[in-house]
Amino acid sequence: MTKDSAAEGPDGEACDCAGSTGGLEYRLATDRSLLQPLRDLLLQIEAEGDIGISAEKEVAYFGRGTGAYFAVADSTDQVVGYLSGTRRNGNAGDHAVDDGAVVAFIHMLAVGQARRGRGVGFRAVQLFAEHAREVESASLLALQLDDGGDFDLRRARFERMGFCFEELVGLVNIDELLGLGFS
């Protein structure tokens, strides 16, 4: 995959999932050539112990190419993070949402320690929200935090993105997250 390529959605549909933050270009990539750099990053994140992650399990999901599993790559093709998510109809974790609502659910978001606090995670969430809206027709984005590690810090970061939490489950309107819900 080149910097100008589009990532493919879970159904093989093209999705232009790229944008810049902090002077670097980021994209959600499904390119299998990123498998080893992604494995290295996830093993590092697993060793840090800040979030509960099984690096090999996540790499296996990415390698199969089913579902929405993305490496977060910068303009130099360095893998700096990982995001996985799926489409859900009418539920966000353990909580029901409005009838008929299509929910994009973030299962995992991980950013390498060297890039944390620089907007990489936020940009990855935005790119996934764009993908979910365009490819999956989702109107809501949800996630469920685990209560270990730096829980308060992670929750605060998602709240700054606009997520509202009920216990461990956060939910945000995709148009509001992308700035389209404000006049």
Automatic annotation (TrEMBL):
SUPFAM superfamilies linked: Acyl-CoA N-acyltransferases (Nat) (SSF55729)
Pfam families cross-referenced by the UniProt entry: Acetyltransf_1
An example Gene Ontology molecular-function term: acyltransferase activity, transferring groups other than amino-acyl groups
Ranges of residues in domain N-acetyltransferase: 24-183
Protein name: GNAT family N-acetyltransferase
Organism of origin: Solicola gregarius
